[in-house]
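Per your request, structure below.
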C-alpha cells in the first residue's frame, strides 16, 4: 500500500481536499482508504443505542454490521493510542491510503496552507512535507499545488510515487 499524508492547521481545508481526492483516485481505478487522526475525542455512537450501552458496560470491542457496512469500535481504556504502522496493518489491502493529520509521521505529505489564516507554514520544520497546496501566494522552495484543483494534486501524488 502506498501511504500519503496531508497536514495543516485546523480549518485549512485538509478534509475538503481529501474528500475531493478520493473520487479522483477511484475514477482512475485505485482502491483508496483513509486514516484520520483526531486530536480530540470523538464518538460515532449515540447514547442509549445498544452498541453505546455495550461499550459503556465495559466491552473492549463492539462490532456493528448491516447489509451496507460494518464498523469495529475499540475502546482503549487507558491503553496507548496505536501507532500509525499498527493502524495501517488493520486496513484491508488497497492501492493508496490517505492520512489526514499525523504531522510528524515519516510519510510524504502535502501541507495545506492558507496565507489568509495567518498561521505559519509547517514545511520549514517538517522534512516530510514534499509540496504545499495553497490558494494564495507563498515563498516556498517546494512544489506549489492549486488547492482548488484536486486533479492536479492527484497527478502530483501519483507522479511522486512513480518517481520513487
Amino acid at each position: 500500500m502506498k501511504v500519503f499524508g496531508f497536514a495543516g492547521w485546523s480549518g485549512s481545508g485538509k478534509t475538503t481536499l481529501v474528500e475531493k481526492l478520493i473520487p479522483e483516485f477511484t475514477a482512475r481505478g485505485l482502491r483508496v482508504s483513509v486514516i484520520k487522526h483526531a486530536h480530540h475525542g470523538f464518538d460515532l455512537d449515540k447514547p442509549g443505542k445498544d452498541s453505546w450501552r455495550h461499550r459503556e458496560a465495559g466491552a473492549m470491542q463492539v462490532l456493528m454490521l448491516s447489509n451496507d457496512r460494518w464498523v469495529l469500535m475499540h475502546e482503549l481504556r487507558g491503553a496507548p493510542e496505536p501507532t500509525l504502522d499498527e493502524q495501517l496493518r488493520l486496513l484491508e489491502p488497497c492501492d493508496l491510503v490517505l492520512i489526514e493529520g499525523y504531522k510528524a509521521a515519516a510519510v510524504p505529505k502535502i501541507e495545506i496552507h492558507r496565507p489568509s489564516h495567518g498561521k505559519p507554514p509547517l514545511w520549514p520544520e517538517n522534512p516530510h512535507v514534499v509540496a504545499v497546496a495553497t490558494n494564495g501566494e507563498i515563498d516556498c522552495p517546494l512544489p506549489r499545488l492549486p488547492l482548488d484543483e484536486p486533479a492536479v494534486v492527484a497527478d502530483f501524488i501519483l507522479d511522486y510515487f512513480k518517481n520513487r
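The chain is about 25% helix and 25% strand.

Regards,
D.
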